[in-house]
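As the work plan foresaw, the team has encoded backbone shapes as discrete tokens. One protein thus recorded appears below exactly as we store it.

:::
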Amino acid sequence: MARPVLGRIGVWRRDAELTPDLAVSLERLGYGTVWIGGSPDGDLRLAEELLDATTTLTVATGIVNIWKDDPATVGASFHRIEAAHPGRFLLGVGAGHPEANREFSKPYAALEAYLDGLDAAGVPADSRALAALGPRVLRLAGERTAGAHPYLTTPEHTRQAREILGAGPLLAPEQRVVLTDDPALGRSLARQSMQLYLGLVNYTNNWRRLGFGDDDLADGGSDRLVDALAVYGTAPEIRHRIDAHHEAGADHVTIQLLTPQNTDPLQAFEQLAETLAI
């Protein structure tokens, strides 16, 4: 089975912020894939609803947490969706982070075992991807899935990930963006969005590998760290960062649009679609 076609640009959005109507609008604008962020349930009902409402859009999970739902359950959900919408769903899975999972122990072995379970459930390798940051899990993603979905990273990480993965596997990083002409607002929204992750060791370890230090991780994150992990500004400025990921080896970049609370995101998605060459 060929891996799903993601397109050049996708949209990452938390499950509570996704509706079939928004998916229809994003498809109309030309975005190739909608990523269901957070830890969507193993029944994958939201993915099915988004696919039911659209005709060409690919839907991916970013990510199903391996500690939350067993591979047999997720595998059965995958086959239900694949039968109705062949080739339009990518199952992204990952181990989450130790601070949120009491069971978190030997995550690499747990990922291997989960992939074994997906194999047993008949989920093809090319229809699944791994959340991956460090070299070891990146290699596992390339060996046993379509590829890697790194989260909250930089174009430099994309370059390193591509070197580890080699030429074939999928590389689909997430990129935070704020469309604004107010740099202070852009940086503020970006900083707010990453506060949780400053206390999660899998992310902080990855940033340390990229050259950030204790000063960057203190007091809500340094401007240097925030500016490296998020891009804010005009649509052309945002496109420059997206292009940097592609030039570094990304096949697909999924944007996480940050907006002030209670703001309709559709106008910003429309403006970005005109500039991002999707």
